[in-house]
């Protein structure tokens, strides 16, 4: 049943989107710590992340586990080439967790080191994620352990860093406020321009996904939506409320990811393997998808509850 492979791919794409939007925002906020020196500002940024960062990584676990169970052939091929960036990413996520959780319990001197560790580990994790995606989408996938250091993967890694930084700016403006953490609106414009520049370069290097999507009836609408979002954010960023800025940035990220996925469909690893070649047996897929059908709603409910409980602006110490 070929539709099972399509459904499995859609489930993994949803998990990927949720991870990029949720944990990507946290990684962006963590990277922004590099740009601030005031202790109260740093504390407010970290406090905005603490209640939710670990739950956001649930989607990464679901994505990796789902790929292993639903597309084992692709899992084996991907990790034979990407084990170095994946290991670096996971190690950096662990370092980020240490920096977040222990920041308030260590000495002032150690805290300074953790404040350096948090943005560096967040940036490296983001870069590795983008580089892995870039290598897969490029159509030049190779089992060479260092193929992820090519031009297209490197630009994709840098692009994802700036996407996360843009999301982080919107998050901090919304959860902390411009009054407490000044400069995030200015940073937003810089990161938006850097995003657009790298995005255009990457599309020029590998225009195949865009060209494929443009041939689809709904694909033209998606591409037009992406262009309109870019133009609106560039022209109206200064006037947007923090929440609207964050929401539009998340929609832009989701639209680009969907466009990229549609651009390589039905290939899973362009030039090497398509969805149906990589998929596990029908019974296995049905069994795994049944479990995921329970896990995803529960995870979404938990996320919604956590956001509701910790809603509102971050308050300063003693308030």
UniProtKB/TrEMBL annotation:
Signal peptide positions (record): none
The keyword Transferase appears for this protein: no
A GO cellular component entry from the record: plasma membrane
Domain of life, per lineage: Bacteria
Keywords: Cell membrane, Membrane, Plasmid, Transmembrane, Transmembrane helix
Membrane topology term: Multi-pass membrane protein
GO biological process: one example: aerobic electron transport chain
Primary location recorded for the protein, binned into one broad class: membrane
A Pfam family that the UniProt record links to this protein: Cyt_bd_oxida_II
Spans through the membrane: 12-36, 57-75, 81-99, 120-139, 145-169, 190-210, 216-234, 246-266, 286-310
Location relative to the cell: Cell membrane
GO molecular function, one term: electron transfer activity
Coiled-coil segments on the chain, per record: none
Family that this chain belongs to: Belongs to the cytochrome ubiquinol oxidase subunit 2 family.
Listed name of the protein: Cytochrome bd-type quinol oxidase, subunit 2
Organism listed in the record: Rahnella aquatilis (strain ATCC 33071 / DSM 4594 / JCM 1683 / NBRC 105701 / NCIMB 13365 / CIP 78.65)
Classification of source organism: Bacteria, Pseudomonadati, Pseudomonadota, Gammaproteobacteria, Enterobacterales
């Amino acid at each position: 049943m070929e539709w099972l492979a399509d459904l499995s791919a859609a489930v993994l794409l949803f998990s990927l989107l949720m991870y990029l939007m949720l944990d990507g925002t946290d990684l962006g906020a963590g990277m922004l710590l590099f740009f601030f020196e005031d202790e109260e500002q740093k504390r407010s940024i970290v406090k905005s992340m603490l209640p939710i960062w670990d739950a956001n990584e649930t989607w990464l676990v679901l994505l990796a586990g789902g790929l292993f169970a639903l597309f084992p052939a692709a899992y084996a091929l991907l990790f034979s080439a990407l084990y170095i960036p994946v290991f670096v990413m996971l190690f950096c996520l662990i370092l980020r967790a240490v920096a977040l959780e222990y920041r308030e319990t260590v000495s002032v001197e150690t805290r300074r080191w953790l404040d350096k560790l948090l943005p560096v580990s967040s940036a490296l994790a983001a870069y590795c994620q983008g580089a892995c995606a870039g290598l897969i989408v490029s159509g030049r996938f190779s089992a060479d352990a260092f193929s992820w250091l090519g031009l297209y993967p490197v630009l994709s890694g840098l692009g994802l860093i700036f996407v996360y930084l843009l999301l982080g700016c919107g998050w901090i403006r919304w959860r902390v406020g411009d009054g407490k953490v000044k400069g995030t609106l200015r940073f937003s414009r810089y990161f938006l321009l850097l995003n657009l520049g790298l995005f255009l370069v990457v599309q020029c290097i590998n225009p195949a996904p865009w060209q494929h999507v443009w041939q689809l009836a709904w694909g033209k609408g998606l591409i037009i939506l992406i262009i309109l979002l870019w133009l609106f954010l560039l022209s109206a960023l200064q006037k947007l409320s923090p929440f609207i800025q964050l929401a539009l940035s998340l929609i832009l990220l989701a639209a680009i990811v969907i466009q990229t996925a549609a651009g390589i469909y039905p290939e899973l690893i362009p030039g090497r393997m398509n969805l149906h070649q990589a998929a596990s047996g029908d019974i296995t897929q049905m069994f795994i998808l049944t479990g995921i059908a329970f896990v995803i709603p529960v995870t979404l409910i938990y996320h919604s509850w956590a956001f509701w409980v910790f809603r509102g602006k971050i308050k300063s110490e003693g308030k």
